[in-house]
Specification:
It is a single chain. The chain is α/β, with parallel strands linked by helices and about 325 residues long. Helix content is about 40%, strand content about 10%. It contains nine helices and seven strands; from the N terminus they run βαβαβαβαβαβαααβα. Helix 3 packs parallel to helix 4 and helix 7 crosses helix 9. About 40% of the residues are buried.
Length: about 325
C-alpha cells in the first residue's frame, strides 16, 4: 500500500495484547493510528510505564502514549462495539482527525468456551453483539470512506479459517467467529464482482497460541504452559505482510499468521516469537485446511438483489 501520503489505520480492540502490538507496529511502519477500545485511563498516572501489556493497566490511553513517546502518531478514541452508532462515530472521528481511512482492523472480541448446555443465552448474545455484529457495524461505517479513497484500502479481521474441529466445545463462540470469516469471504466476493481491485478484506488467526490476558489466567496456575506461547509480534508481522501485499493476492484470505509469513516472506525460523526462548510451542491449528470452493464456483444462477425488488427498503 505504498503512497505519497501518511496512511491511516483504525484498530478496534487496541488496548492490550494483540491489538496493542499491532497498533505499535503500524505506527513504527509509518501509519497514523487510531486506537479504539472500551478501556481508557490517565496514561500519565500509570506506573510503571509502559504497563504490562496484558494487564488492566494497559488501555487505549497508554497505547496512545507509548506510540507518541516513540515518535509515532496516534489518537485514542473509546468505543463500545455493541452500539452501532458509537462505532459509526469512531470511524467518522478517525476521518475527521486524519482526513482519511486506509486500513480497518477489527480485533475486538468476547470469548466463552463451553458446551451449548453451559453457555447461557445472554452470554451467547453478548458474543454475537461484539464479534460478528460489531465487525459488521465497523465495516458498514467504513464503506463510505473507502469509497472516497477511490475504493483503495484494506480490512483485516481477527477470525479463523473455517473447519469442523473449531466448533468443538465452543459452539456459541464459533458461531460468531466463523460468521466473521463468512463476512470476509462474502465481502471479498463483492469487491471482486464490483471491480474494486484495490480493496481487500482478509482474516488472520494464530497458528500457535498467543500470549494474552486470557492465557495469563492459565499460566498463573501452570507456568509450564508458557512454553506453548508466542508473542503477539508474529501476529503484527503477519498483518503488516498482508498490508504490503497486492490487494488481489490477499482479498478473501482466511489465513494463519505463521503460514502466511512462511508463504510470503520465506520465514522458516519462528523461534524468535517464542515467549520462552528455546521452546517449540505446540501448533494448535491444523496443518492442512479444507478448501471452501466448489467446481461450480462461478455459476451464480439467477442473481437476486433485494435492493432492486419492488418496495425493498435499505
Amino acid at each position: 500500500m505504498g503512497t505519497g501520503y501518511k496512511l491511516v489505520a483504525l484498530v478496534i480492540g487496541a488496548s492490550r495484547g494483540i491489538g496493542r502490538e499491532v497498533s505499535i507496529s503500524l505506527a513504527k511502519d509509518g501509519y497514523a493510528v487510531v486506537v479504539a477500545a472500551k478501556s481508557t485511563s490517565n496514561a500519565f498516572e500509570v506506573f510503571p510505564f509502559p504497563p504490562d501489556p496484558n494487564s488492566s493497566q494497559s488501555t487505549i490511553s497508554t497505547v496512545e502514549r507509548e506510540i507518541r513517546e516513540a515518535g509515532g502518531e496516534a489518537t485514542a478514541i473509546p468505543v463500545d462495539t455493541r452500539d452501532s452508532e458509537i462505532v459509526q462515530g469512531v470511524v467518522d472521528k478517525t476521518v475527521a482527525t486524519y482526513g482519511r481511512l486506509d486500513v480497518l482492523i477489527y480485533n475486538a472480541g468476547a470469548i466463552w468456551w463451553a458446551s451449548v448446555a453451559n453457555t447461557p443465552l445472554k452470554r451467547f448474545q453478548l458474543m454475537q453483539k461484539i464479534n460478528p455484529e460489531g465487525l459488521y457495524s465497523a465495516v458498514q461505517a467504513s464503506m463510505k470512506h473507502f469509497e472516497k479513497n477511490g475504493w483503495k484500502g484494506r480490512i483485516i479481521v481477527v477470525s479463523p479459517p473455517i473447519y469442523s474441529r473449531f466448533f468443538r466445545g465452543k459452539t456459541a463462540y464459533a458461531m460468531g467467529k466463523v460468521g466473521m470469516s463468512v463476512l470476509t469471504k462474502g465481502l471479498a466476493m463483492d469487491f471482486d464482482r464490483e471491480g474494486k481491485r484495490d480493496m481487500a478484506i482478509a482474516s488472520i488467526w494464530p497458528a500457535v497460541a498467543i500470549q494474552s490476558a486470557a492465557t495469563e489466567q492459565q499460566t498463573a496456575t501452570d507456568p509450564s504452559l508458557m512454553r506453548d506461547l508466542r508473542s503477539p509480534q508474529i501476529f503484527s508481522d503477519a498483518i503488516l505482510a498482508i498490508l504490503r501485499a497486492p490487494a488481489v493476492q490477499v482479498n478473501g484470505l482466511l489465513e494463519l499468521d505463521e503460514d502466511f509469513l512462511r508463504k510470503t516472506t520465506g520465514t522458516t525460523d519462528f523461534s524468535k516469537y517464542s515467549v520462552v526462548l528455546g521452546s517449540n510451542p505446540r501448533r494448535i491449528m491444523p496443518t492442512k485446511l479444507p478448501t471452501l470452493t466448489v467446481d461450480e464456483e462461478k455459476d451464480e444462477g439467477k442473481k437476486m438483489d433485494s435492493t432492486q425488488l419492488r418496495g425493498a427498503k435499505l
